[in-house]
Amino acid sequence: MGRQLIEQPAKSVIILVSDFYEGGSSSLLTHQVKKCVQSGIKVLGLAALDSTATPCYDRDTAQALVNVGAQIAAMTPGELASWLAENLQS
Q1: Which of 3, 65, 74, 79 could bridge across to 47 with cysteines, CB 3.0–4.6 Å?
Q2: What is the pLDDT of residues 16-56, one digit of tens each?
Q3: Which residues are within 8 A (CB) of 44 and not within 5 positions of it... i.e. 6 or more apart?
Q4: pTM for this entry
């Protein structure tokens, strides 16, 4: 994930925009996200929406990421700015 390139983890944010349907190993993704969170990096995940703005993503993978400390949400672009502000201030 590039975690090793981050010099100031406590001041860093990784934003994943995904449907969380992994073509590879979801356990590897979960492990990498856990390492990022443990190092102090804030990890935010923006889950996919379908053409009618209905959340459309792998909820099991998203929950696994939440379980290791990521913040995951599915929202319209209109809701995105306030969610980002809320999560970046905490």
Answers
A1: 74
A2: 999 999 788 899 999 999 999 999 999 999 999 999 999 99
A3: 13, 14, 15, 16, 70, 71, 72, 73, 84, 87
A4: 0.88
